[in-house]
Structures are given as C-alpha cells and as structure tokens.
Amino acid sequence: MPNTMPNTMLNTMLVSGCVLFSAALARGDVFTWECDSFPVEGGWGFLQDYCEPVTWVEEGFYVQQLDMSACPGENEGAQDVYRNSIEEFVSVDGTDSFFIEFCLSTTGDQSEIIGGAPAVLATVNSFGLDYTATVSRDKVKLFRDTDLPILFIDVVPDEPHTVRLELLNGPINLFRWYIDGELVSNGIAEGVFPSDNAFIVWVGQSWQLPTVNRWDYIRYGDIAEDGSGDFDSADGVGLRDWRYFEECAGNSGIGVDAGPGCRWADMDGDGDVDLVDFAGFQGVFGG
Ligand SMILES: [Ca+2]
Ligand SMILES: [Ca+2]
Ligand SMILES: [Ca+2]
Ligand SMILES: [Ca+2]
User: Fold this and answer.
1) Which domains does the chain have, with CATH numbers?
2) Quick check: helix, strand or coil at residue 248?
3) Which ligand has the shortest distance to the CA of 255?
C-alpha cells in the first residue's frame, strides 16, 4: 500500500506522524486502533494523565492499571486520557452515516460511574451534542443530554463489552446504541453528527477505587454498506477488509447472528457470517 499511496496522503502521514491506517483517513474510511500499540503510536492524541497511571500493551490489549497509590490523600486517583478530532467525518451534505465501536473489559466498580470512571468514551462536539458511554465491570451508562433520560444497563460482569453507536444522518437524524450486539437505545437524534468541532475523548480513571481496564479496540468511521464485504468503504475489497471479515466469521457461524458491526460481512443478508458469506466475500475480493 505505501508504494501506491498518493502524495497527498503521504504528506498527511508525515505531518501527522500517525500510523498508516489512522493517517489514511478520508471520506469513506474507518479509523481502527486494535490496541496492539500504545494509543499515541496508534493514532490518538494524548490529552492528559494524572497520578501516574500504569499502562502497557499485551497481546492486542491496551491495559490501564489505575489506582490512588501514587497520590494518596487526593480526591481522585490515576487518569489516562486521549482525544481525536473526527472533523474528517463531518457530513458535508448532512446525509452520511457514522459509527463508533469499542470493546474493553474492566474490573472497575459501578460506584465509580458517578465520578466519570472507570472507563469512558465520549463522542461529542463543542455545541452540546453528546454520546457518552461509561463502562464498569457490570453496568454501562449511556448519556446523551442533561434533559434526556440517562440509561443504566446491566451487563455480564468481568467479560469484555462492546459498545456501538450508529448515527444515520438525513432528513431525519437517527441514532442507535448497541451493547454487546443488542440494540439498547434508538430514536431521533438532536442533530447531524459528527458536526463542527466533533471529537472523541476516551478516559481510563480511578475515581475512588482501583481499576484495571483492558481495551481491545476502538474503531470509527463510515458505516459500511450491508453485504458489501467492504469494511472500510475504501479501496475495494482487500486484505484490510479480510482481517475484519475473519473476525466476524469467527464470532458467527451458520445461523448465529453476527451483530450490527458485521452486516457488511453478511453477504447473503440472512444475519450470520458463514461459509456462504465467505464464498460471497471471495467473489468480490480484489475487486
Ligand atoms: Ca485488540
Ligand atoms: Ca475496503
Ligand atoms: Ca447463513
Ligand atoms: Ca449470511
């Protein structure tokens, strides 16, 4: 891919110093950080840390070990915070779609949620549009606005949890929120999103209690067309799409619902990703 990369893209890469996929952002693309590197190496902007967070990368996970040990007597413990602008995904004509999906497990207690801990991912702009998910070991909080209901959803403790937000812009702007593949909230959004000054901030924090957060991935960008085989809506169907097709197939099988993040890989539209879909994917691969 580097050999065929246009100059403009290469320039973006050099200026930003980001890795290939995060730097190659454009309309019709997806940012992926699979947590096999530290966040800054993976294309995130470092925002702040506090109270000496201990972090490391381990077999595809970014681990944050956060507690009060480095700052006894303080009102809160360690923080580790990153931010990316999503300006490049602002819908020019207000009709594009956007998703963000992340997966992590955490040992952090649900009593930490009120303190903005143990793990938060906020997709917001500076004009009050907000989609914030806070994940603890057995409860997830979903927040949109101060005058809208806040959702608290019980989840299976001590397992990885996937939170997926879909924004469908058009004459009516819609949102859908999924936890572990289940639709938990949907309806009319407060406006087009991403819009001006839109960004993502994600946070690991110990507020009053220690936590270990194991982030598996954060992905965001255009929602791929159903049954297209084209995960990133870019560059045809190639090896990058194959990496995610394999993941979808591994989590599905004949008659097993592949979930909202794999509709693009369900080539025959029957809800699963199985060998029939593999054949369909092969048919478009390289095209
Ligand atoms: Ca991973
Ligand atoms: Ca592609
Ligand atoms: Ca099938
Ligand atoms: Ca299928």
Assistant:
1) 19-221 (2.60.120.200), 239-284 (no CATH)
2) helix
3) 3
The identity of residue 149, as a single letter, is P
Q: What is the pLDDT of residues 171-227, one digit of tens each?
A: 999 999 999 999 999 999 999 999 989 999 999 999 999 999 999 999 999 999 999
Query: What protein residues have CB closer than 5 angstroms to ion ligand 2?
Result: 230, 232, 235, 241
Which pLDDT belongs to residue 13? 32
Please give the distance, rounded to the nearest whole angstrom, from the Cα atom of residue 216 to the centre of ligand 1. Answer: 4
pLDDT in tens, 182-191: 999 999 999 9
How far does residue 55's CA lie from ligand 1's centre (Å)? 15
pLDDT digits (tens, 9 = 90+) for 12-25: 333 333 333 433 44
The pocket of ion ligand 4, defined by CB under 5 A, consists of 266, 268, 270, 272, 277
Question: Which residue shows structure tokens 């169907």?
Answer: 237
Q: Which ligand gives the minimal distance to the CA of 237?
A: 2
What is the torsional sign of CA 107, 111, 113, 116?
negative
